[in-house]
């Protein structure tokens, strides 16, 4: 946590990477921290502004191909996110933002360099992956199953030094077998937009990573739990 004991959360490039209500992830983190009495500062950093290097948590949202390519170029040129990660900041990335963390990705038929923060690369799949996405999360993270909604054309191929976030039981995710990726305090998922609303336990994981606390007081997640159970039952029956 920053020296002033406030959890600082940066939402990266809301002008480029906010196609799917990605602001929700920032609101959910701030709310869940506040409910534990943890002070939070949220900062929105537009693509024409320098990236702060000392925030505790960075959020990178989803986006269409053009804004995604522009975001990658600006983040690489800026270098601030790399410095923050080297200093131990937490990163949570969704869909286009997730693809950006790897070595390369395709947008509008062209290959672009990614930030190379995680060991994977993305190419294009034969179909667009649209629909429910879910499956058991890496047991080392101690979280309930992932549920979400995906909408992407890319496929992501993990290298040996990164772990899948989850195995896929519904949907496509990375490649039909695994979904998302994590290493250290960096976590990416194809679960769409405000993914933390459907997966509040991931929000708490990010807050624990940022604060260093082993546990946080539980909150009432009845609605998220019910939605998960309903969607898992519906996709199992389909
Ligand atoms: N443009 C990327 C793709 O289609 C990411 C899309 C998204 O963020 N939903 O794969």
UniProtKB/TrEMBL annotation:
Taxonomy, superkingdom: Bacteria
InterPro entries: Class_I_gatase-like, CobQ_GATase1, GATase_3, Lipid_II_synth_GatD
Signal sequence, renumbered to the chain: none
Keyword Acyltransferase: no
Protein's UniProt keywords contain Cell wall biogenesis/degradation: yes
Catalytic activity: beta-D-GlcNAc-(1->4)-Mur2Ac(oyl-L-Ala-gamma-D-Glu-L-Lys-D-Ala-D-Ala)-di-trans,octa-cis-undecaprenyl diphosphate + L-glutamine + ATP + H2O = beta-D-GlcNAc-(1->4)-Mur2Ac(oyl-L-Ala-D-isoglutaminyl-L-Lys-D-Ala-D-Ala)-di-trans,octa-cis-undecaprenyl diphosphate + L-glutamate + ADP + phosphate + H(+); L-glutamine + H2O = L-glutamate + NH4(+)
Binding locations of substrate: 128
Family: Belongs to the CobB/CobQ family. GatD subfamily.
Stated name of the protein: Lipid II isoglutaminyl synthase (glutamine-hydrolyzing) subunit GatD
Organism listed in the record: Phytohabitans flavus
């Amino acid at each position: 946590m920053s020296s002033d004991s406030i959890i600082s959360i940066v939402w990266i490039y809301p002008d480029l990477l906010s196609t799917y209500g990605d602001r929700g992830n920032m609101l959910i983190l701030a709310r869940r921290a506040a409910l534990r009495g943890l002070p939070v500062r949220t900062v929105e950093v537009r693509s024409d502004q320098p990236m702060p290097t000392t925030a505790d948590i960075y959020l990178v949202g989803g986006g269409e191909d053009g804004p995604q390519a522009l975001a990658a170029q600006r983040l690489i040129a800026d270098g601030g996110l790399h410095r923050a990660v080297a200093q131990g900041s937490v990163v949570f990335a969704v869909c286009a933002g997730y693809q950006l963390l790897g070595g390369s990705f395709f947008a509008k038929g062209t290959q672009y360099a990614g930030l190379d923060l995680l060991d994977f690369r993305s190419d294009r799949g034969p179909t667009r992956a649209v629909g429910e996405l879910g499956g058991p999360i890496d047991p080392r993270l101690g979280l309930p199953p992932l549920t979400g909604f995906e909408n992407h054309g890319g496929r992501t191929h993990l290298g040996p030094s990164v772990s899948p976030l989850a195995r896929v039981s519904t949907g496509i995710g990375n490649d039909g077998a695994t979904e998302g990726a994590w290493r250290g305090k960096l976590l990416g998922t194809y679960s769409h937009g405000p993914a933390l609303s459907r997966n509040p336990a991931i929000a708490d994981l990010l807050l624990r990573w940022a604060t260093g606390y082993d546990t946080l007081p539980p909150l009432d997640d009845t609605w998220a739990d019910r939605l998960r159970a309903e969607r898992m039952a519906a996709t199992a029956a389909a």
